[in-house]
TrEMBL record:
Needed co-factor(s): FAD
Protein name (Swiss-Prot/TrEMBL): Methylenetetrahydrofolate--tRNA-(uracil-5-)-methyltransferase TrmFO
GO biological process terms on file: tRNA methylation; tRNA wobble uridine modification
Record NCBIfam families: gid_trmFO, PRK05335.1
Pfam families per the UniProt record, alphabetical: GIDA
InterPro entries xref list: FAD/NAD-bd_sf (IPR036188), MnmG-rel (IPR002218), MnmG_N (IPR040131), TrmFO (IPR004417)
HAMAP family on file: TrmFO
Length: 445
């Protein structure tokens, strides 16, 4: 086949889209502006670089919508899930990876594929012909973002996303910290001890909250406004919502027992998750922040066990952009005003590594079918991938459209099942059983 699929952006969505198309026999060109044009968050020019966290979140495909999305992508031969499984780190019930090995693995596989080429350089205008997928993610370059706004006649929506700090393991005081996953989750000992825990008593917690609230914060530029995505709030913003908010969020003390003081119940607990295969780097879970660097060092060193912490990376904040997909995209993920262009990934208003990759997978399969003169059957919204694309292409209210993680609230109900918390386990299992059957049938068709 002589026609080529062009993909702008080599992140999660662009990388998965390229793999899916190439595996289907379609020549692919990935246009990636890095490293010639950098971003605030990226450190390399590799494909599928993980910039916020090293976790793909829950891998439970029977009781969790994210785990179900993992399952669907594996069934579809997803490259990113293959690489995640290959470079997995112990993380209890979550799927965490060695981020550098993961990115390098994706890059090597795509560059080695005979139908994939990678062209460095920034695309600044919307293409007028050919088959294209824009998967530039939340850090779309200013020039391309302006071209999108000029075409759609609407301002891209925006929010601010914060990055959590990373600590060197050898600087953590293990006389105060201990290894344990919440409720000892995981089938192996490594998974059951996948997290590092730092306990706080009431006075330490209250002092920590005071320090968070008083710390110097990064200010937005003049005229720059946006809301936060609730799934990735800076820790100090959570503290501003109430002094107990963190104790019911990333610092909740339940399901953990301190072996150094087994009879003492911690008032709050800070958890760290391994960030690389060597175990030399650990990120502070849920501690995204917009504090200035000096303030971060002072505040985080007040955490028991981190008094002498050395940071491989401090937290940061960057501006994320996404389009109003319910208004701008059709059910084939095409830009209504220019149907030769599809959008995929976080720029469409999905949130999370896995969700972004899933939208890349789907956009590529839709593009391949169109290029081959075929029409794919409608993707059931009973699947995790289908629920997401249905949400962003019309299921969401356009006036209040905000980034969304996959969750069972996007799925149509299963009739005859109990609502509420007591019926949740049976309800979630019914959702995932139905989704697996429908996804398998869609792939086969």
């Amino acid at each position: 086949m002589s026609e080529t699929l062009h993909i702008i952006g080599g992140g999660m969505a662009g990388s998965e889209a390229a793999w899916q198309a190439a595996q289907a026999g379609i020549p692919v060109v990935i246009h990636e502006m890095r490293p010639q044009v950098g971003t605030f968050a990226h450190q390399t020019g590799d494909l599928a670089e993980m910039v916020c966290s090293n976790s793909f979140r829950s891998d439970d495909h029977e009781q969790n919508a994210v785990g179900l999305l993992h399952w669907e992508m594996r069934q579809a031969g997803g490259l990113l899930m293959e690489m995640a499984d290959r470079h997995q780190l112990p993380a209890g019930g979550a799927l965490a990876v060695d981020r550098d090995a993961f990115s390098l693995g994706v890059t090597e596989r795509l560059r080695a594929h005979p139908l994939v080429s990678v062209e460095a350089g920034e695309i600044t205008e919307l293409p007028t012909d050919g088959h294209w997928i824009i998967a530039t993610g939340p850090l779309t370059s200013g020039n391309l973002a302006q071209a999108i706004r000029a075409e759609t006649g609407a301002e891209s929506l925006a929010f601010f996303d914060a990055i959590a700090p990373i600590v060197y393991f050898d600087s953590i005081d293990m006389s105060k910290a201990w290894f344990q996953s919440r409720y000892d989750k995981g089938e192996t000992e490594a998974e059951q001890k996948a997290y590092l825990n730092c306990p706080m008593d009431r006075d330490q917690y209250e002092a920590f909250i005071d320090a968070l609230l008083a710390a110097d914060k990064t200010e937005f530029h003049e005229g720059e406004t946006a809301g936060y995505f609730d799934g990735c709030l800076p820790i100090e913003v959570m503290a501003e919502r109430g002094r107990e908010t963190l104790r019911h969020g990333p610092m909740k003390p339940v399901g953990l027992t301190n072996p150094h003081q087994p009879d003492v119940k911690a008032h709050a607990i800070v958890q760290l998750r391994r960030d690389n295969a060597l175990g030399t780097l650990w990120n502070i879970v849920g501690f995204q922040t917009k504090m200035k660097y000096g303030a971060q060092t002072a505040v985080f060193k007040s955490i028991p066990g981190l008094e002498n912490a050395s940071f491989a990376r401090l937290g940061g904040i960057h501006r994320n952009t996404f389009i109003n997909s319910p208004t701008l995209l059709d059910d084939q993920m095409r830009l209504k005003s220019r149907p030769n262009i599809r959008f995929a990934g976080q720029i469409t208003g999905v949130e999370g590594y896995v969700e972004s990759a899933a939208m890349g997978l789907l956009a590529a399969r839709l593009a391949v079918a169109e290029m081959q003169g075929r029409t794919l059957p409608a993707l059931p919204n009973t699947t995790a991938t289908g629920a997401l694309v249905t949400h962003i292409t019309g299921g969401a209210e356009a006036k209040t459209f905000q980034p969304m993680n996959v969750n069972f609230g996007l799925f149509p109900p299963v009739e005859g099942l109990k609502g509420g918390r007591r019926g949740r386990k049976d309800r979630y299992k019914a959702y995932t059983d139905r989704a697996k059957a429908d996804w398998a049938a869609w792939l086969a068709a």
